[in-house]
Design brief:
The protein is of the alpha+beta class. It has a domain of 250 residues: ATPase, nucleotide binding domain (Nucleotidyltransferase, domain 5). The chain is 33% helix and 22% strand. It contains 16 helices and 23 strands. The strands form 7 sheets. A 7-stranded mixed beta sheet has the order 17-18-16-15-21-22-23. The longest helix is centred in the last third of the chain and has 27 residues. It is globular, with a radius of gyration of 23 Å. Belongs to the FGGY kinase family. Key enzyme in the regulation of glycerol uptake and metabolism. Catalyzes the phosphorylation of glycerol to yield sn-glycerol 3-phosphate. It catalyses: glycerol + ATP = sn-glycerol 3-phosphate + ADP + H(+). It is an enzyme of class 2 (transferase).
């Protein structure tokens, strides 16, 4: 029995994060502090260019291992754990046989582009927006619905088995919950509103599967999980290290981060700075249609309370631009060095770097764009370029923020940040300057897991309400704007000019 140190005797909440590259389990105490962590990577399978798969059985084995590992490291037993929360890589799609528990095919990962042609075909004469009014999403290979249709069309005999009621579809939350709660022996087949809102199959207003879309996509309703709230007891763990513990939350990873960052009021937003960046803003209890290249999504729903909606914007290249500076350009030796280099100059020296390496994501969605460094003169040094690299992340965030305000009429009140790049203090100050809003970094960096833990804790009364969660959440640092409005406007104008220069570089490939 290992001592849990300052964390006392519990009780605790466990969160399982089934991510794109690894699965992990974190045990949290009542103060929302981390007691223990266990993590395990799984294989990335690339059968063809543009195809990305995971072995769902390997993932389930890993989940069981990290749960056992985290419980053991904490020196606790199942009796000390009040609930289990789940968060997951979104849109990754799996179908399995409910009688044997065997997947019919590997999980098709969110990044997989094999359904591109199918999406064009499904768009018919309407195109990308065919289901946008009902789902808040464009018709794109990113989402789960077209992946289900691909499986039904391409796995021998699957459609017949699906129509006979022998096959279950789920995103990774559903797969984990079904297995946790007994699998073939009475496993619960559910998903939550946040994950369901990423399938292209759920109606945003009714929060039910949309029958018209199901028939357009030719997906039998029999395969679909039941849609539940993000914070309620779905069932009880039937075996393993946490046998007997209620399974009480599910949220897609970006929504879990929104919840873990306690963005419970309209206008509160979080941005996760990793390889790319995902920004979500709480828009209250009405879904806001986007006319500015954002996705409308469910932020979370607690029990039978009203659902809370969000707008989501994604940036393709943020952290990966720093990696590019290090690995391809050799201008820095480590990612951390970019801050030192960029801080050695006062400003960008007139240079702007738009990293449209694979096109532009939100709010433009231009696949014909390519990267550009604009405004070069003899004066510009590598330090100025380093600064332009950091500014690129901040300006791209500003563009998404502007789009959110245009769509929703809600001004950004504060931006809560998480992810690897938030250790860069110069970037954080630049973000605050460019957004003209406070930027806040939390004590617990594991925001995604924390969100799943918070939601599960709410469901079982471990925490009484969201006010208690706000009180629990602690800031580590805050940056406030220091830039004068004239400078900000002038620089933004130059940035937007640079963005224009990236467009139309690739001639129509069709």
């Amino acid at each position: 029995m290992t001592n849990t140190g300052s964390h006392g005797t519990g009780p605790f909440i466990a969160a399982i994060d089934q991510g794109t590259t690894s699965s992990r389990c974190i045990v949290f105490d009542r103060d929302g502090r981390i007691v223990s962590v266990d993590q395990k990577e799984h294989e990335q399978i690339f059968p063809k260019p543009g195809w990305v798969e995971h072995d769902a059985k390997e993932i389930w084995t890993n989940v069981q291992e990290v749960v056992a590992g985290a419980v053991e490291k904490a020196g606790i037993t199942a009796a000390d754990v009040k609930a289990i929360g789940i968060t997951n890589q979104r849109e990754t799609t799996l179908m399995w046989d409910k009688n044997t528990g065997e997947p019919v095919y590997n999980a098709i990962v969110w990044q997989d582009t094999r359904t591109d042609a199918l999406c064009k075909e499904l768009g018919r004469n309407v195109g990308q927006d065919r289901f946008r009014r009902e789902t808040g999403l464009p018709l794109a290979s990113y989402f789960s619905g077209p992946k289900v249709r691909w499986l039904l069309d391409n796995v021998e005999g699957l459609r017949e088995r699906a129509e006979a009621g022998d096959i279950l579809f789920g995103t990774m939350d559903s797969w984990v919950i079904w297995n946790l709660t007994g699998g073939v022996n009475g496993g619960v087949h559910v998903t939550d509103v946040t994950n369901a809102s990423r399938t292209l199959l759920m109606n945003l207003r009714s929060l039910e599967w949309d029958e018209r879309i199901l028939s357009s996509m030719e997906i039998p309703a029999a395969v679909l999980p039941e849609i539940r709230s993000s914070a309620e007891v779905y069932g009880t763990a039937q075996g393993g290290a946490l046998a007997g513990v209620p399974v009480a939350s599910a949220l897609g990873d970006q929504q879990a981060a929104l919840f873990g960052q306690t963005c419970y009021d309209k206008g509160e937003a979080k941005s996760t700075y990793g390889t790319g960046t995902f920004m979500l803003m709480n828009t209250g209890d009405e879904p806001v249609q986007s006319y500015n290249g954002l996705l409308t999504t469910v932020g979370y729903r607690i029990g039978d309370e009203k659902p809370v909606y969000a707008l989501e914007g994604s940036i393709a290249v943020t952290g990966s631009l720093v990696q590019w500076m290090r690995d391809q350009m050799g201008l820095i030796k480590s990612a951390a060095e970019i801050e030192t280099l960029a801080s050695s100059v006062e400003d960008n020296g007139g240079a702007y770097f738009v990293p449209a390496f694979s096109g532009l994501f939100a709010p433009y969605w231009r696949s014909d764009a390519r990267g550009v460094i604009a405004g070069l003169t003899r004066y510009v040094t590598k330090a100025h370029i380093a600064r332009a690299v950091l500014e690129a992340t901040a300006w791209q965030t500003r563009e998404i923020t502007d789009a959110m305000t245009k769509d929703s009429g809600v001004e950004l009140t504060a931006l809560k940040v998480d992810g690897g790049m938030t250790s860069n203090n110069l970037l954080m100050q630049t973000l605050s300057d460019f957004l003209d809003a406070p930027v806040v970094r939390p004590m617990v960096a594991e925001t995604t897991c924390l969100g799943a833990a918070y939601a599960a804790g709410l469901a079982v009364g471990f925490w009484p309400d969201t006010d208690a969660l706000r009180a629990n959440w602690r800031r580590a640092a805050e940056w406030t704007p220091r830039m004068d409005a004239d400078t900000r406007d002038r620089e933004y104008k130059s940035w937007l000019k640079a963005v224009e220069r990236t467009m139309g570089w690739i001639e129509d490939e069709e």
